[in-house]
Amino acid sequence: MAAIEPWALKGELMLSCNCTVFCPCVLSLGLHPPTEGHCQTWGGVRIDEGHYGDVPLAGLNLGLILEIPGMMSRGNWTAAVYVDERADIYQLKAITKIMSGSARGTTRVLSIMVGKFLGVQQVPITYETEGNVRRFKIPKIIEGEIEPIPGTSPGNHTVINNSQYWIAPEIIVSRANKSRFRAFGRNWNFEGRSAEICPLDWMGP
Question: Has residue 29 got a pLDDT over 90?
């Protein structure tokens, strides 16, 4: 068995799902189902700093889709991963280990909860920030634009801090201005639905 290398990813994650605003999974930890009884979600990742062993990962973008049939804690998730077309073979292998959960650490939950893995595809991916708005695009697959929900203090967002959410302990509560996913026989449109922006700080093993 190949040794698991130390790894880390820092950057930002944006996520759009089928829940009404705001998704209870952030706080329920599996105690309550998603607002629609099941979860359909896609996420985009911008890696600002990152490595897997000696393999550098900074500057790459990732995409992830998840489909969860009920409460998160019951498992049987379906997942797929999209990797930036700019990644070389070593970066592709490293990201596949991280996003499948086999590299342990923060993403180990994926190796436990995912029952059906649809695979990894290399595609062109863009992750853009314009003011408070985040845009994520994989041509012909994902097109999303999400924006934070303002708080009472001018210029500040509505933020959830110090939760036990596996993705991040700080979540900016957001809403999708545009959110389409088309692949694997699925055609999702989550415009106006729940979204999140999270500082990314994952590591392992």
Answer: no
**Per this entry, what is the length of the chain?**
205
Give the residue numbers spanning the domain of 178: 7-204
Does 63 reside within a domain? yes
User: 157-180, pLDDT tens digit by residue?
Assistant: 899 988 878 889 899 999 999 999
Residues contacting residue 131 through CB under 8 Å, at least 6 positions apart: none
Q: Can you give the pTM of this predicted structure?
A: 0.93
In a domain, 139, yes or no: yes
Residue 2 reports pLDDT greater than 90 = no
Tally of structural domains, the chain: 1
Residue 2 lies in a domain: no
**Mean pLDDT score of the chain:** 93
